[in-house]
Structure prediction request, 208 residues.
Amino acid sequence: MERFVRQQNVAHFEKLLASADDPTTRRTLEVLLASARRALALLDSAERGADVTPVELQRRAAADAPSAREQLRADFEASPHPYMLLDPGPGLPIVDVNDAYAAATLIVRDEVVGKSLFEVFPDNPADPAADGVSNLFASLKAVALTGEPHAMAIQRYDIRTPDGDFVERHWLPINRPIHDSRGRLVLLLHHVEDVTEPAKAASAAKNA
Prediction:
């Protein structure tokens, strides 16, 4: 029932936004829609993860995740590019991050492994229109369902500092499926490029 209500909220605000002309009304509806989409994404990620079909859940239960992860280990560890491995199951637990990812996102590697993705990386509560959580979840779900990589558009997704404050960040994310030797989905690989400075420069030029 809770999922149905949240789905209806999203559909309701999408419909209202499509017919709204007043800028103030549109801004209010955009905030409400962002909140509704976030709530639905958090519910689905916690209860189902990115693997949402019974067939995929059965296949993944028999999959060989340790072997697939071991094959990735050398490149994953040595890469200067930020990478994060996720379990596609309920909660989207963080399996590992490399040192580049930890540095880029201001986290401590050993402290986040095993935690839910959106527990570690929530939306900035000071930005009611933030859509990082819902957009990232949609991308991860698409990867799990299609078995194909998904390149997201530039995404603002603020990150939390060790002091608990949020700092503005813009990213170019790519999500990929990792399969075992029999083609079963075992992990999701999340790669980001920090494009904060060019994104902010482009925004400043646009608003000048």
